[in-house]
């Protein structure tokens, strides 16, 4: 990774050549018989204060990318450089748990499922205050005050501190998770399918809350989701993943207007369009078959068996990531194809 360029001033997180290969073990002796290339050579930056959307079908490697960034996993290869609160850059890749501890307060995760991610035996005081207790800088009274303040920030009543999570709805539980994530003043929050378990209006309220908090505290977000409609609403830029690789990366509005990768086109064609003026005539691409198995990917471009535009070149040669009109695209035919977006 010696050829990496310095992290630009406006970038909070710089991911380069990231790889995670999980071993496949077999039999009584658990001999390794293969590997799952869950994340394979992924490179992207997230700018300070922006919302970056990571999209793709289930199994494309999105959650693994988030777990690598938050160093819940070790890296197989690559680099993750993070701008700290004091503006210094830290390489997270090789750090051990002790070295990671001071950085953990600056990076947080909000989980998908508001029902299973909160310990039902803990009161909100303990749930939200736990990171503060572990940090050990505040007294008991100060922690209580801070938890009440955090409850207020996420639109919950401060007097709820002594209640248990079961007293709350799914949407409120997610707010409890957000309050907990905010406890240590992070600069970066990764939200894995943050709102998918909720009904649409509750989800929208929580998205609005996250946007308000972003503005208030200058937070940087990475949203991981299948929901392209949501991504269009909240993300400044998006990365589209397919079988462990980033296949398209760029400005959200531009990608929605005119995708350059056939996989992005197919994902966009499935986005419901409530506004009839934006609906293009009859073009809905039904993706054939399933997402490829990262333990046994097809030769050439992993998308080729499902791609309506695939040629012999696509079946034999892995396309390189190329820069085309300010966007990163991994498709041999990106320039020639005239793909359809979702219109103005
Ligand atoms: N701990 C693991 N051991 C082995 N394989 C794994 C492990 N975690 C993930 N994988 C495999 O890696 C690939 C990518 O998984 P990942 O969960 O990152 O995808 P995803 O895009 O986040 O999907 P989802 O939206 O369903 O969470 C999948 O094929 C998955 O089976």
From TrEMBL:
Q: Is the keyword Lyase assigned to this protein?
A: no
GO MF annotations in UniProt? ATP binding; ATP hydrolysis activity
Positions of the ABC transporter domain: 13-268
Q: What is its main location?
A: membrane
Biological process (GO), any one: peptide transport
Looking up Gene3D superfamilies in the UniProt record yields: P-loop containing nucleotide triphosphate hydrolases
Q: Which UniProt keywords apply?
A: ATP-binding, Nucleotide-binding, Transport
GO CC terms for this protein?
plasma membrane
Q: What topology does it adopt in the membrane?
A: Peripheral membrane protein
Q: Which Pfam families match?
A: ABC_tran (PF00005), oligo_HPY (PF08352)
Into which family does the record put it?
Answer: Belongs to the ABC transporter superfamily.
Q: What is this protein called?
A: Peptide/nickel transport system ATP-binding protein
């Amino acid at each position: 990774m010696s050829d990496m360029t310095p992290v630009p001033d406006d970038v909070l997180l710089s991911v380069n050549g990231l790889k995670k290969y999980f071993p496949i073990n077999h039999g009584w002796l658990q001999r390794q018989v293969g590997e799952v290339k869950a994340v394979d050579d992924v490179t992207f930056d997230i700018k300070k204060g922006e919302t970056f959307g990571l999209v793709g079908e289930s199994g494309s490697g999105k959650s693994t990318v988030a777990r690598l960034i938050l160093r819940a996993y070790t890296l197989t290869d690559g680099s993750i450089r993070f701008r700290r609160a004091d503006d210094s850059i830290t390489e997270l890749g090789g750090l051990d748990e002790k070295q990671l501890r001071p950085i953990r307060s600056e990076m947080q995760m909000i989980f998908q499922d508001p029902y299973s991610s909160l310990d039902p035996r803990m009161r909100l005081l303990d749930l939200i205050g736990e990171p503060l207790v572990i940090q050990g800088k505040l007294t008991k009274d100060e922690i209580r005050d801070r938890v009440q303040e955090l409850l207020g920030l996420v639109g919950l009543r401060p007097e709820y501190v002594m209640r248990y999570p079961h007293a709350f709805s799914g949407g409120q539980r997610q707010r409890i998770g957000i309050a907990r994530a905010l406890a240590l003043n992070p600069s970066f929050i990764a939200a894995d399918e943050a709102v998918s378990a909720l009904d649409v209006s509750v989800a929208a309220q929580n998205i609005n809350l996250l946007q308000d908090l972003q503005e208030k505290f200058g937070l940087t977000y990475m949203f991981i989701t299948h929901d392209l409609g949501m991504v269009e609403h909240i993300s400044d830029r998006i990365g589209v993943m397919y079988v462990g690789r980033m296949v398209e990366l760029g400005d959200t509005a531009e990608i929605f207007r005119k995708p350059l990768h056939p996989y992005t086109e197919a994902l966009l064609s499935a986005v419901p369009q409530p506004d009839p003026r934006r609906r293009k005539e009859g073009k809905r691409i039904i993706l054939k078959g399933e997402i490829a198995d990262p333990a046994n990917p097809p030769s050439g471009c992993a998308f080729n068996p499902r791609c309506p535009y695939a040629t012999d070149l696509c079946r034999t040669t892995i396309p390189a990531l190329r820069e085309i009109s300010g966007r990163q695209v991994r498709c041999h035919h990106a320039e020639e194809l005239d793909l359809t977006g979702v219109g103005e």
